[in-house]
Design brief:
Blueprint (H helix, E strand, L loop, with lengths): L4 H11 L8 E3 L1 H7 L2 E6 L9 H10 L3 H6 L1 E4 L3 H12 L4 E5 L5 H9 L3 E4 L4 H15 L2 E2 L6 H17 L5 E5 L4 H13 L4 E7 L4 H7 L23 H8 L2 E5 L1 H15 L5 H12 L8 E6 L6 H14 L3 E9 L4 H11 L3 E8 L9 E9 L3 H13 L4 E3 L3
Parallel strand pairs: 2-10, 3-4, 3-6, 4-5, 7-8, 7-10, 8-9
Antiparallel strand pairs: 1-2, 11-13, 11-14, 12-13
Helix pairs in contact: 1-8, 3-5, 3-8, 5-6, 8-9, 9-11, 12-13, 12-14
Length: about 400
């Protein structure tokens, strides 16, 4: 069965009351920041925190009784795995999930918690895929592909139906791209409902497989990306022709831009997304000319991020915003000198988070030491105020590394 507007409408009927019709809400603050009229589709609010359960459930419900009895196998970096595992358990089916060895721990444990048998194999998705195909044949399990399957693509396309039902005036949809299942399904659905609408895909610069395939270029990949959910080295055989025909462009975003988008969504919208889930907003920040003045719908595709990774991203975001800084201050190695510096910092309204005080690893003259302070600050202007106050008090001070 090919992917069509009819197959996506049929998928929507199957999914009714089985997955969440997630909110699609206007963001006043992000609109002001980007210059576009921004609407967010909160797919991170699905029970498994990702849109992936849409396509997974449509596929599972399409299986013949004998296939259901034997069980299913999926290969996934996490979100597709959780969608398959959760709905297979609901339907009383066996689920085996093959995941790359370096999949974030939170995704592995959540998948196991849904009752699936998890096998870690391969350094990346493509290596895990080879293991999964062999295992499915050996154990007579039906392979539920994460993106290159017409039923799965049709299920993912229901996201666009919901967005346009909620906000029919949208001009543009911005969609994260891995193998292409989400954007292919959404493109078919959206173009059928509103032919003039434009779709933009978004990939990490570190994994530009779809963008390169569309240009006919050989893709080069980095070792990793913060957006591991879209770290796919080859787009789907079914998805690529659909994207080529219906999608305006696939944009690339950097790792820092994705991190910034994660922090912005947390701070402004009070919502947690993973790297792939933040890719759409990252594209608006990195390529504003494409979207300025237009009504833009962004898919927050998932929220399964490792808490430890999130904590590091937040800290790095605070550093970029000038709200966390590291100053190196020179002072005489005399009693009371450190107290004088800390009093000066207090007068400048800097909150001390860490102090590192050492004598040996320096080229400074004897009896002079360098103390490193990690400070909570209000922004870059505040940092300059603090440095001026320290220098006025007779202490040489600089941003560490400057």
């Amino acid at each position: 069965m090919p992917v069509s507007a009819q197959s996506i409408r049929a998928a929507a009927a199957v999914l009714a009351d089985q997955v969440i019709d997630t909110p699609c809400l206007y963001s006043r603050t992000l609109s002001a920041i980007t210059g576009a009229e921004v609407y967010l589709k909160f797919e991170n609010l699905q029970f498994t925190a990702s849109f992936k359960e849409r396509g997974a459930l449509v596929k599972l419900l399409s299986l013949a009784p004998a296939e259901r009895a034997a069980g299913v196998l999926a290969v996934s970096a996490g979100n597709h795995a959780q969608g398959v595992a959760f709905h297979a358990k609901r339907l009383g089916m066996r689920a085996v999930i093959v995941m790359p060895r370096h999949t974030p721990h939170v995704k592995v444990e959540h998948t196991r918690a849904f009752g699936a048998e998890v096998i870690l194999a391969g350094e990346n998705f493509d290596e895990a895929k080879l293991k999964g195909a062999a295992l499915a044949a050996e154990k007579h399990l039906t392979l539920v592909h994460p993106y290159d399957d017409a039923q799965v693509i049709s299920g993912q396309g229901t996201v666009a139906l919901e967005m346009l039902a909620s906000e029919p005036a949208l001009d543009v949809l911005v969609v994260p791209v891995g193998g292409g299942g989400l954007i292919a399904g959404m493109a078919v659905a959206a173009k059928a409902a509103k032919p003039g609408i434009e779709l933009y895909g978004v990939e990490s610069e570190n994994f530009p497989s779809m963008a390169c395939a569309l240009r006919g270029d050989a893709a080069r990949f980095a070792d990793n990306t913060i957006a591991e959910g879209i770290a796919v080295k080859q787009p789907g055989a079914l998805t690529l022709p659909i994207v080529r025909e219906l999608v305006r462009e696939v944009l690339l975003v950097g790792e820092g831009e994705i991190e910034h988008a994660i922090v912005l969504l947390l701070e402004v919208e009070k919502t947690v997304v993973e790297g792939a889930g933040a890719a759409g907003l990252a594209a608006l920040l990195a390529h504003p000319a494409h979207f300025r003045g237009r009504r833009v719908g962004i898919v927050l595709s998932g929220g399964n991020i490792d808490p430890l990774m999130l904590s590091v991203i937040i800290e790095r975001g605070m550093v970029r915003a000038g709200r966390l800084t590291r100053l190196a201050v020179e002072l005489r190695d005399l009693p009371g000198a450190l107290a004088t510096v800390t009093a000066c910092l207090a007068d400048a309204s800097a909150n001390i988070e860490e102090v590192h005080h050492q004598r040996a690893f320096t080229n400074l003259p004897l009896k002079t030491i360098e103390v490193e302070f990690v400070l909570q600050t209000r922004g870059r202007e505040h940092i300059e105020e603090i440095i001026r106050a320290l220098r006025a008090a007779g202490f040489a001070a600089r941003v560490h590394g400057a």
